[in-house]
């Protein structure tokens, strides 16, 4: 008799969680976390490319050291701003992460602009390889950010819908922060240095 009562209680609880959207929220939250992990993977890939990029250009005579310093410091700051899955509920921590990434993007852009004045650097195979890798990484970052925002939108919509919003409040499911880069950050940087070809086409 006790076993039957236990099974009835277990079944009732299971039906309650299923009907109130708890399992759906759990699944959607995991999807958000997984999507964010992919964003972080691509950001890390860009981080890993920077030391080789700096090493490739720093040997050039009279290269602007301040630009290299800016990139190195920005990379260091990015490394100190890490987000855990629970931090995706904190808009301020999320903003700090974005700001650090934006600063690194700006520093990299300035470095690549300066490199334009050094044809010997652009001609090296190592730099060309890094160029291709960086371009691919920037594309992947853009794609993964979009997927992350889509996952967040799905989760937030469900968490704010009735009656699921009741479950969300009871069990502490909070809305996730969207990726909101500064104006123009959704445009993939142009890292194509084949300027001779461009000039010939004009």
For the record, give the distance between the C-alpha atoms at the N and C termini, rounded to a whole number.
Answer: 88 Å
* Mean pLDDT level: 82
Largest sheet: none
Order of helices and strands: HHHHHHHH
Briefly, what is this?
This protein is mainly alpha-helical and 202 residues long. The chain has one domain: Helix Hairpins.
What this model shows, in words?
With 202 residues, the protein is mainly alpha-helical. The chain has a single domain (2-201), classed as Helix Hairpins (Orthogonal Bundle). 74% of the residues lie in helices and 0% in strands. It has 8 helices and no strands. The chain has helices spanning 2-19, 22-58, 65-80, 91-115, 119-122, 125-159, 164-170, 195-201. Helix 2 runs antiparallel to helix 3 (65-80) and helix 3 (65-80) packs antiparallel against helix 4. The longest helix has 37 residues, at 22-58. The chain is elongated. The N and C termini lie far apart (88 Å). The relative contact order is 0.15. Residues 6-18, 185-189 and 191-202 have low confidence and may be disordered.
């Amino acid at each position: 008799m006790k076993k039957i009562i236990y099974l009835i209680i277990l079944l009732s609880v299971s039906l309650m969680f299923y009907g109130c959207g708890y399992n759906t929220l759990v699944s959607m939250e995991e999807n958000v976390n997984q999507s964010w992990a992919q964003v972080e993977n691509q950001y890390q890939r860009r981080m890993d490319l920077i030391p080789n990029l700096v090493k490739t250009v720093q040997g050039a005579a009279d290269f602007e050291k301040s630009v290299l310093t800016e990139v190195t410091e920005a990379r260091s700051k990015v490394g100190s701003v890490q987000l855990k899955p629970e931090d995706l509920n904190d808009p301020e921590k999320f903003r700090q992460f974005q700001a650090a990434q934006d600063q690194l993007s700006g520093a990299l852009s300035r470095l690549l602009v300066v490199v334009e004045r050094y044809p010997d650097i652009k001609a090296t195979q190592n730099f060309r390889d890094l160029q291709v890798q960086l371009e691919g990484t920037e594309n992947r970052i853009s794609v993964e950010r979009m997927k992350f925002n889509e996952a967040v939108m799905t989760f937030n919509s469900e968490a704010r819908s009735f009656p699921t919003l009741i479950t969300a409040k009871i069990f502490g499911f909070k809305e996730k922060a969207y990726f909101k880069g500064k104006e123009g950050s959704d445009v993939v940087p142009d890292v194509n240095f084949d300027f001779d070809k461009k000039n010939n086409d004009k």
